[in-house]
Amino acid sequence: KILIQIYHMTIYYIFCSYKIWIEYKTRKDSLALYWLRSDQTSDGTHPFLLTNNQFTYARGIFPCQDSPQVRFTYTAKISVLKAITVIVGGRQCKSIIKGDQDLHTHIFYETNPMPSYAIIIMAGLLKSKHNNFITLWAEEKHFMQSKKVLTFCRKAINITNELCGFPIQDEFNICVLPSNIPEIELQCRTMIFVSSTLLDEDPIFMCDTIARKIAQSWAGGLVTCRNFQHLWLIKSFSIFISSKILEFRYRPMIQMMFMRKRIFYDLNVKMRLYGIDSQQKLVPSLTDILPKNITKSVPDEVGYYLLDSLQKDLGGSTVFAQYLKHYMRTFCYQSIDTIDWKDHLFSYFDSKHEILMSRLDKWLYKLNLVSMYDDLYDSVRNLSEILTQQWITTNTTDKLSSKLTRRLLHPNINKMHFLNYLYTSPITLPIGKLESIHSIFPLDEQTCQIR
To answer: Topology versus the membrane, per the UniProt entry (predicted)?
Structure first.
C-alpha cells in the first residue's frame, strides 16, 4: 500500500495541482517478467524481455491498481540499446531520443484509457514486416515461417472489424515469441503474442488459436470485465467472436467441426481436472482463490454455449451480429459486470424478455452440466469418437482398427481429437494400447501440441 499525505491543505491550496514522483524497482525474479539472456534467444546476441501482466502481476512492474475496472492513460520512456525494438501496450514508439552511440530512449503514450494488464512491455532484437497497418515482429529464426501468421491475421482482423465495429485501422502488432517463452495469453487492444511452437501445428489449430487472441482485442481490450469474477465476459465473448472469424474464413465443415470439438474438449478437461462443482456458474465465488487459479473456476466454454444459444433464439446470426456491434459501441473502453451485460441485453431485445429470462435462468443460475453433457457431446460426436470408444473398451486386442488408423494418419487435427478423447476418458489404458498408439504416430516425431 502507498499512503500519500499532502500537508498545508488550507483553503488557499484546494485548487492547487500536485505531481507525485514514485521511485521503484522490480525484482529480477518477479513473476511479471519473462527475461531471456542472450544465449536463450535464437540469435544468441541480445537478451529479450516480455512482461507478464496477467491478473494481478502488473503491480510487480509498476505501482498501479491492477483491477480490470481501473483504466488510465499513460506515457512511458524506455532506454535500451539502439538495436533493440521496444513496444509498450501494443504501440510502437512515437519518437526516439538518441543518447550516446549505443543507447536510445523510446517514448510512448496512450490516449485511450487502458487496464493495467494491457500495458505490456516487449523488448528484443526482432525483424519486422509491414502489411498496411499490421506489423509482424519475429526473431530471424522464425521470421520466414511467421509470414503465414501475418496473412491470416490481416484477414481475421478485417473480419472482426466488420463483425464488431470499432475497427482497428491505425496500428496492430503481432509478436512471435522466442521458443523459450511458452504459449501465453496476454490481452491488449492492438497487439497479440504468438508462440513460435504454434507455427508447426496443424493450420486449423493455429488459426483457431490466433483467432481467439484477435477476438480478445475487442472482448478484452475494448470492453473489459469489472473484476475477475466476471472474467467470462472476456473469455466467452472471445471464443464466440473467434468462431465467427473461422466461420467467415473457412466454409468447409471440417474446420468448423474442429472448433466446436475444441470448445467441448476444453470444457471436458476442466470438468475432469477441477471437478464439476467449480463449473456450476459463469459468475463463481472467488473467495480464497489465488489470481493465478481464477481460470480454473470460470467455465468460459459454457459462456460460449450461452451466447450461441441466445443467437439461435433471438433471431439468428444477422440479428445477433447487430447486437454485438451495439454491445461494443455501448461499452467501448469501459469495465462492466454481468449485471451491466444483462441490462443491455434486455434493453436491446426489448420484445424477447420471456425468452431471455428462461435462457439466463438456466445458464447463469441453474446450470447443471451433468444433465447437459450428453447433448453437448452428441453435437460434436462423429465416427472417430465411436471407433475410439470401441477400441479403449475392447479387451481382446491392443491394435487400432484399420478404419481408426486411417483417420489418425492424417491430418493432425484427427490426432488431436483422438488424444483429447483419451485424455478426458476415465478409462486407464494398458501398456499394450499405449505402445499401439506410439507405433502409429511416434510422439517424439509430433508437433508440440500433440506431444
So the answer is: Lipid-anchor; GPI-anchor
d(CA 442, CA 451): 9
Helix extents (H) in 191-279: 203-219, 232-249, 253-274
Query: Where do you find CATH 1.10.390.10 in the chain?
Result: 147-370
d(CA 444, CA 391): 23
Euclidean distance between CA atoms 5 and 448, whole angstroms: 54
How much is the average pLDDT of 211-233? 91
Question: What pTM does this model have?
Answer: 0.83
164's grid cell: 464488431
Q: Which amino acid is at 267?
A: L
With CA atoms as reference, report the closest residue to 236 among 177, 310, 163: 310
User: How many angstroms separate the CA atoms of 157 and 170, rounded?
Assistant: 12
> How far, in Å, are 169, 207, 219, 257 from residue 165 at the CA level?
11, 21, 12, 27
C-beta neighbour count of 9 within 10 angstroms: 10
Residue 7 clears pLDDT 80, i.e. is over it:
no
Q: Please give the full DSSP string across 84-103, using - where no structure is assigned.
A: -EEEETTEE-SEEEE-SSSE
Asked whether residue 252 carries a pLDDT value surpassing 70, the answer given is: no
Question: Which class is domain 147-370?
Answer: mainly alpha
Which amino acid is located at 11 in the chain? I
Side-chain half-sphere CA neighbours of 283 within 13 A: 16
